[in-house]
Design a protein that fits this description.
The protein is of the alpha/beta class and about 130 residues long. It has one domain: Rossmann fold. Helices cover about 40% and strands about 20% of the residues. β1, α1 and β2 form a beta-alpha-beta unit. α2 runs parallel beside α3. It is globular and about 30 Å long.
Length: about 130
Amino acid sequence: MLKKILVVEDDPEMVELLRFTLRSAGYSVGTARDGIEGIKKARTMRPDLILLDLMLPELDGFAVCETLRRSDDSASVPILILSAMSSQMARFTGLGAGANDYLVKPFSPRNLLVRVRQLIGYEERLEPAS
C-alpha cells in the first residue's frame, strides 16, 4: 500500500510540482488549499506525512501545526513545513509548533524526497512482470 502524503499549500503551481514529484516517487497525494481544509483532510485522509506551507488563507501553517498536534488522530503524523520564510525565527517557531522538519522554498525535488524518506520512508515501485 502506498504511503499517503497530504500537501497543504495554496499556490497551484507548487501543488502541481509537489504532486508530480511525490507521485513519481511512489506516494499517494492528497491536497488542501487552506489551513482549515488542511485540518479537515488530515482527519479524514489519515496521511503518513503532511507537507505544510506557513502562509495560508483562513488559518496559517503555525496554527494548523499546533491544532494537528493537539488532536489524538494527528499528533504523531510527521509534519514537514515548506515555506519561503527563511529566517531562523520562522524555523524556530515552526519547529516549536510541532513540525518535525523545515524546508525553505525554493528547494530541489531531490532534497524534498530525501527529507520525506527520512520522515516516513517510501514504497518501492514494482514493475509488472513481463
